[in-house]
Write a structure and sequence with these properties.
It is built from 9 helices and no strands. It is mainly alpha-helical.
């Protein structure tokens, strides 16, 4: 029988009321592990070794574990891709679910050759619909689509993103982009600050508390 260890205080479990096929469920598990690791300031390896995690539908699938460990191991590079691809929205201002879903999807797109990029994007959009806000699926689809176009064009998306991050944030220079922004509370995405309405030519990223009441209703 699958263990359901006690979670650290403040960490919520993604909805147990959504049922997926085996591969989709494995991606959902990877998302949950990354979310719990980030919420408790640990690596996925530490979460798995400590046993203080839970899954909405277990036991842990080997593919889900592969995605979670792999994405966590490449977190800096994947975050650079997200940050440089997302227009007008920094990584820190994205809801935690969306941020970690993008990490899982990008790792799969870059490192899992046996899965077509289009399949990864479609699966990620479905997870965004299940776990994110009303705007999450469109945002995730758009960002992953831009990365996919760069991959298809033969670009080294990791190297390009890291170089762009270094250009934007030279060593020893304080980043003023999110001045005054308070980090989200561990395990919650209800209190992410909102900004003014975007202009029509901006990316419409999901705001932190858009649909939060609906999302929280399924987080038990």
């Amino acid at each position: 029988m699958h263990r359901q260890p006690r979670l650290p205080q403040g960490v919520v479990l993604l909805s147990q009321h959504t049922h997926f096929g085996p591969r989709t469920n494995a991606r959902s598990q990877a998302l949950q592990l990354l979310f719990q690791a980030e919420a408790t300031d640990r690596t996925v390896d530490q979460v798995l070794e400590g046993g203080e995690y839970s899954l909405s539908d277990g036991p842990l699938d080997p593919f889900g574990e592969r995605l979670a460990r792999g994405a966590d191991g490449m977190r800096d590079e994947l975050d650079a891709i997200i940050d440089t691809t997302s227009t007008n929205w920094s990584l820190r201002r994205m809801p935690a679910v969306d941020r970690n879903l993008l990490r899982v999807a990008l790792y799969e797109m870059l490192e899992v050759d046996e899965v077509a990029v289009a399949v990864t994007i479609d699966e990620s959009v479905e997870l965004a619909k299940a776990y994110g806000t009303d705007e999450s699926s469109r945002f995730v689809n758009g960002l992953l689509g831009r990365v996919a176009s760069n991959i298809e064009a033969g670009n080294d998306v990791v190297a390009d993103a890291v170089a762009e991050e270094e250009r934007r944030h030279p060593a020893n220079q304080v980043d003023q982009t999110d001045d005054g922004f308070e980090e989200y509370q561990a395990g919650s995405w209800d209190d992410v600050p909102q900004r003014d309405e975007p202009s029509p030519d901006e990316d419409v990223a999901p705001e932190g508390d858009a649909g939060a009441d609906d999302a929280q209703a399924g987080l038990e």
